[in-house]
Design a protein that fits this description.
Length: 374
Amino acid sequence: MITFFWPWLLLLLPLPLLSKKLFGFLLENVLENVSENRLQENAEKYTITEALKLPDYNELLAIATKKQTVSIWHNRLIIPWMIWSLLVISVSQPLWMDDKQPIPVTGRDLMLLIDVSGSMRKIDFVRLNKKADPNREPAKLSSQNVEPLKNPGISRLDVVKEAAARFVRQRSGDRTGLILFGKKPYLRAALSYDRNAVEQLIMESEIALAGETTAIGDAIGLAIKRLRDLPAKSRVIVLLTDGANNEGLVNPRKAAQLAYEQGIRIYTIGIGKQTIPGPNPYGIWSAENAQRYEKIVLKEMAQITGGHFFHALDSEGLQAAYDRLNKLEPTLTQNVQKYLAYALYPWSLACAVLLSIFGLFSNRLQQSELYAHG
């Protein structure tokens, strides 16, 4: 079934004919007045001998009928009107409506927030379902001053991308979106039922794409902005980070309070192994305090909004957090019958372009034939 998004624009189809009638009538009256005045002024300038030199009217009519009929009808009337019609049809947005298909819908909007700051490049994870060999002997170092062997694992972001993509794949019926954040947050994927597209965008994420530092509060604020005005039954934010909020204008606790006021739940996932305590080069901060601050803030954000906090120390822990989240936010769906619409305007536009090219060459061909015959 074919329908139009703006069917009222089809009323423009007869516009060229109406304009030609209107302007042709006005132009004909003007030319008649001008021609009568000029004939009266110049009648005495022409003699009978000069009049005999003019071609016969029947001869002119035969030439016009033979040489120009095809050009007039095709190049001046039919082809332009067909091009105009195709352009009007394209602007009217023709749609092919397929049969109704059952689409699973949960009524839940879920925004996934992934930290892509510089700390996510740290290699202290192994791939999911990859277990170390317990019989492998630890690497031995020589007595010389050499660097230790690098961890054969993968970066935190790579593990996060695999787990997040698997999580999105399981969220049948949810509208899922993606926000990446570092120094600043930005919307990577708007809310959509297209899980494959969101999954692909997750896998294309790069470290430090949004800056080296971490702006958790700003990321929550952007997610709230995208969710607050939507008429969803359930609105959820899933935040995943490995560091403390050290950038941005919005305080994470205030952002969580605003989410609670808007009826949005926040689930937070902190990743990374416990670090060895010790002072930084200035003797002010320690890695243990930084890790503890992160856990406290993330836990408070989840508690304020009625969500839950997960702490993943390794790949299995991260996957377990997503599995637990699937149970806390089950995908209880109902099938909604909806039409699948396919846009047809590219075809009508292509036909208009081809007709324009055909009309141009046809007009040139007619002109060359007229010049050749004389």
